[in-house]
Amino acid sequence: MPLNPAVSKSYAGLPQALGAYAVWCLFPLYFALLHDVAPFEVVVWRLLFTLPFCLAVILVMRQGAALRTALTTPRIVGALALSGLFIGTNWLTYVIAVVDGHVLAASLGYYINPLVNVLAGTIFLREKLTRRQWIAVSLAAIGVALLAQGALETLGISLLMAFSFSAYGLIRKLVPVDALTGLTVETILLLVPGLGLLAWQLSTPQGLMMGTSLRLDLLLACAGPLTAIPLMLFASAARQLDFSVLGFIQFVTPTGLFLLGIFYFGEPLRPIQLVCFAFIWTAIAVFCWDIMSRRKTA
Q: What's the whole-model pTM score?
């Protein structure tokens, strides 16, 4: 049975969101290959290689007019400068966490983020949750609280990741630009501080790792498309999905990070983490039950 148009529209961006979150699950594997590169340098090359990739796609898709319009609209430039600051903060925190061996702290940050999104959606966007969705949120909150209690030493990393990404998503939902144009403007605006960070890294005893080996150069160059593609998918989903729904299905990413931290990176698994995992996956089941029930009713 086809969905009611209103219900169908509210989940129109679901494939893009799932695609973005699935790619982000694999990021620790990529950043682990860059363990010899300073986090600041990783973030800067990630930024610098994202810009030419975005410009190439804009050229191919003939979206130059949309880019010019965005760059000449002060309100849009100001909003995207703020969103760029938030996503840059998130990138740097994430890379530092992975390089320093705190994959589970990064996972917790993305577990907290959906709850922040639900809060932001209800406060700033006046979104309303169904009774079953509130039950799901409550179960997830209990699980996250249990997990946070056992990771107080790295809770600051998790909270910074959660709030910076939620603020980024909220701004991108509200700014009237498409995903590709918005990301291109953000990277242009971050170019100057990025070059400043690169100059600072060059002045440190470690210097720059770019140019020291072909393998590292290729890995750093791949940071552009690996950054741009999921962010474009996410921004597209943010424009279409309710912000609360967008946040809740983000549990895909921290679950992937959680499993990688345990089974690939060998971080110790505590009983409280299993309890948290059970609460969160019960919450996801309730949330999916609500979606299917609404589909059946429609």
A: 0.77
Q: Contacts for 120-128 with beta carbons within 8 Å, 24 or more apart?
A: 120/166, 120/170, 120/243, 120/247, 121/242, 121/243, 121/244, 121/247, 122/244, 124/170, 125/170, 125/173, 125/242, 125/243, 127/242, 127/243, 127/244
Calpha distance 224→220 (Å, rounded): 8
User: Is the separation of the CB atoms in 80 and 177 below 8 Å?
Assistant: yes
Classified as helix, coil or strand, 222 is coil
Contacts of 182 (CB under 8 A, 6+ apart): 70, 80, 83, 172, 175, 235
Measured CA to CA, the distance from residue 59 to residue 90 in angstroms comes to 28
Give the pLDDT of residue 70: 93
Closest to 122 measured CA to CA, from 279, 245, 290, 287: 245
The domain spans of the chain are: 14-297
CB atoms within 10 A of CB 61: 11
CB of 174 closer than 8 Å to CB of 86:
no
Q: State yes or no: pLDDT of 55 exceeds 80.
A: yes
pLDDT in tens, 114-139: 788 888 888 888 878 788 888 888 88
